[in-house]
Design brief:
Elements: E1 4-7, H1 9-25, H2 28-47, E2 53-54, E3 61-65, E4 70-77, E5 80-88
Parallel strand pairs: 1-5
Antiparallel strand pairs: 2-3, 3-4, 4-5
Helix pairs in contact: 1-2
Length: 98
């Protein structure tokens, strides 16, 4: 059984920002490849939500590596997976709430 995936507004904004950056500083192809990676990882967690590592700060939050720079943070409740945010791990980790 696949879980329903819900993207929160914050996570959508982060995704748009990353894709915009990739298109403008790299290429449209790189941005599309990134979106393919996101879609694949979301598909994987929808089938097996416990696959992500537990967050260090909050026990109910999990994270999964998308690229070597980007983590996707999510929670699982009942039959839903909520995508909380995307985080560039080159940033100050103190900025991360999870």
């Amino acid at each position: 059984m696949a879980y329903k995936v819900v993207w929160l507004k914050r996570s959508i904004k982060k995704l748009e920002k990353i894709v915009y950056y990739l298109e403008n500083n790299w290429s449209k192809r790189v941005a599309l490849e990134f979106l393919d990676k996101i879609n694949y990882k979301v598909f994987v967690i929808s089938k097996n939500p416990q696959i992500g590592m537990r967050s260090e700060k909050k026990d109910k939050v999990r994270k999964i590596l998308i690229t070597k720079q980007i983590y996707l943070f999510y929670t699982v409740s009942n039959d839903k997976i909520k995508i909380l945010t995307l985080f560039d791990n080159r940033q100050n980790p103190g900025k991360l709430r999870f």
